[in-house]
Specification:
InterPro entries: GH43_arabinanases, Glyco_hydro_beta-prop_sf. Keywords: Hydrolase. The chain contains two helices and 20 strands. The chain is globular and about 60 Å long. The two termini are 20 Å apart. The protein has one domain (5-321): Neuraminidase. A four-stranded antiparallel β-sheet has the order 3-2-1-20. A four-stranded antiparallel β-sheet has the order 4-5-6-7, with no helix packed on it. By secondary structure, the protein is mainly beta.
Length: 322
Amino acid sequence: MSDDGFGYLLVHFVEDPSGHSEKIFFSLSRGDDPLAWERMNGGEPVLEWTSGTGGVRDPHIVRGPEGFHLIATDLRVWRPEGPDWGAYRHRGSRDLVVWDSPDLVTWSTPRAVTVAPEGAGMAWAPESVLDSSTGEFLVHWASGLPADAGDSTGATGPACILASRTRDFRTFTEPRIVLERPGGVIDLTIALLDDGRVMRFAKQDDAYPGSWRIFQQVGGGLESDDYTTVARGIGQHIAEHVEGPLVFRAHPRAGEPERWYLWVDQYSRMPQGYHALTSDDPASGRWEPVPDDAFDLPPNTKHGAVLPLRRHEYSALRERWG
């Protein structure tokens, strides 16, 4: 059997204010189509976290030399007593929740790893990318850092993006700030280009005057200081509030140009969930909307990551979870 690129896995959670779906769900593409999806496991979650806050949101998956690592925010918003965004923002979990797998089918027991500094308010929307030059993973997330030492309220400042490095998702280097914007910035996602450049997308707080909303930058390396902004306000044609960008390159098709997809997560109205854009020149910042009727994804599919698969991985996932 050929083991070339075939199919895609989407790891995500489901927005359900009346239930408890802040768990890890898998959706699989229909064949090699990156715009047609089905939830696996009969629509039920595949992985669950019951310690910490009792739920997880915003999962991300990365392929490494020895398998896969899935990380997520330790956060349950829809609790029986109702959400408390003030508490989440200023006194939320400083932990990531981590699962490991050699094959996408067998998964380790989840563990919590503290990454945000002492006094930080949260560790939201973690993602990771493999730095092939060092063999390390760059892991990044959004944290509100401690405000003025004289502030006795316990409030933290605007969110910024922190990053750390790890080889095993157990021990991490001291985090440092890699991205800041006035009013706060969250939801960083990174993609590597073949020419060595790096694309990154993030979300500036909507309420800040002149906010860039979802914006795209291109730079010379994972932690370089030469990033230039090539797009702002991405996805504003979809809804007033969009967040959680994810980006991936589609498998190549003979005779066709390279194709990338950028999804943004609409949360202005129910049902919430992703809308897709596409480009054959992603570093340009020019993204064309995919018509809604050409994008088949179950509603309330929320903030996650797409992993392009190999043919044997696609078959194994379908055999395991249907």
